[in-house]
Amino acid sequence: MESENWKPNFTIRFNSTQTPSKELGSSRIIMAAIEILDLEKSYLVGFWRKRPKLALRPLRLTVEEGEVFGFLGPNGAGKTTTLKLLMGLVFPTAGTARILGKELDDPAVKSQIGFLPEQPYFYDHLTARELLNYYGQLSGVPAKGRAARVEQMLERVGLSGSASVQLRKFSKGMLQRVGLAQAILHDPKLVFLDEPMSGLDPMGRREVRDLIQQLRSEGKTVFFSTHILSDAEALCDRVAVIHQGELRGVGAVADLTSGTQGKIEIIFYAAKVPAGLTALGAVARISGDMVNAVLPEEQQDAALELLRRERLKLISLAPVRNSLEEYYIQRLQPTDVEKEDEEDEARNEENRKGVGV
Ligand SMILES: Nc1ncnc2c1ncn2[C@@H]1O[C@H](COP(=O)(O)OP(=O)(O)OP(=O)(O)O)[C@@H](O)[C@H]1O
Ligand SMILES: [Mg+2]
């Protein structure tokens, strides 16, 4: 049982072989929706495919039922690899995982999960409606009511007007919407989304955010990967940061963003930054007829006094809150071990080039 997810005060954690979650008086029984137990994946790369490359170092992570969980990391971090492992699309080099208390290859799992792949591929001669009907059959949506369910999903992802258009005429964002519709078509308990906002215009992004919120309010578990931190901050209960195949941190968004940084931000009307402000340790920038300055909170009184002396009109003053972005950036800083690994890797690469392989 992992300590990071252990919640005291009447929360009873069951392990996967026990009863699913339900409310019992004031106590809350939580079942893990996803238990990743040291999953590891290495690919064989290089000309002779002999050199192992670790795409995912042993990953241990638990996602509770009903959570919206964000899996964050830069390009090449290992997000898609993790999702493919969980979907059984690639096999782990080591480790295992359980979904909704069952082994990954348990057929009962498949009907309860939905998946939006990173690059959804569809038979493009089909229309959106035909494709969803087809997926509905595959995922066991009962024939009675299937057509109505398809229409409902098309409506939900904003594609009702294009339901009879062949997918080859769809834009990237429209295909992404079809992908989302197929992921939730069979009303799964747990939804995996790989970069769900990718390729969408601002309106589309907003709609997907709303859709994820709706899934949350229906009690579903959503596990999605992204590098759009504002989406993660707005949507997620918890996030994990992964970098170079390694888990760098897990935390509740509310905790990560609740603190302040010991700095204040003041905004006031001025044509230029007053000279005395920089001496107070402020980092200031001018935008239009306003100045925005961030400075240590202990300089607040001195800064206000300076504005008063210079007869400058204050617009706002607020503490600078932690954002998910700071946490994320901080987690991506290379560790000493990694710096050494990178140097070794560079040396090996040089040697390989030297022997012409
Ligand atoms: N089939 C493969 N063969 C060899 N290496 C692979 C393969 N698939 C992925 N990798 C490597 O594994 C690492 C993780 O890739 P992955 O696709 O999981 O990253 P990601 O976090 O999803 O990135 P992105 O944000 O760009 O989608 C990368 O270094 C990638 O080059
Ligand atoms: Mg990816």
In short:
The protein has about 350 residues and is an alpha/beta fold. The chain has helices at about 80-85, 105-110, 130-140, 145-155, 170-185, 200-215, 230-235, 255-260, 275-280, 300-310, 325-330, 335-355; strands at about 10-15, 20-25, 25-45, 50-65, 70, 95-100, 100-105, 115, 190-195, 220-225, 240-245, 245-250, 260-270, 285, 290-295, 315-320. Strands 1, 2, 3, 4, 6 and 7 form a six-stranded mixed beta sheet that branches. A six-stranded mixed beta sheet has the order 8-9-10-5-11-12, sandwiched between helices. Strands 14-15-13-16 form a four-stranded antiparallel beta sheet, covered by helices on one side.
Explain what you see.
The chain is of the alpha/beta class. It has three domains: 33-257, P-loop containing nucleotide triphosphate hydrolases (Rossmann fold, 3-Layer(aba) Sandwich); 260-321, Alpha-Beta Plaits (2-Layer Sandwich), CATH 3.30.70; 327-354. Helices cover 33% and strands 31% of the residues. It is built from twelve helices and 16 strands. The chain has helices spanning 79-86, 107-110, 128-138, 146-156, 172-184, 202-217, 229-235, 253-258, 275-279, 300-309, 324-332, 336-354; strands spanning 11-14, 22-24, 27-45, 51-64, 68-72, 94-99, 102-103, 113-116, 190-194, 221-226, 238-243, 246-252, 260-269, 283-287, 290-296, 314-321. Strands 1, 2, 3, 4, 6 and 7 form a six-stranded mixed β-sheet that branches. The protein has a six-stranded mixed β-sheet with strand order 8-9-10-5-11-12, with helices on both faces. Helix 6 links the parallel strand 9 and strand 10 (221-226). Helix 3 (128-138) packs across helix 4 and helix 4 packs across helix 5. The chain is globular and about 75 Å long. 31% of the residues are buried.
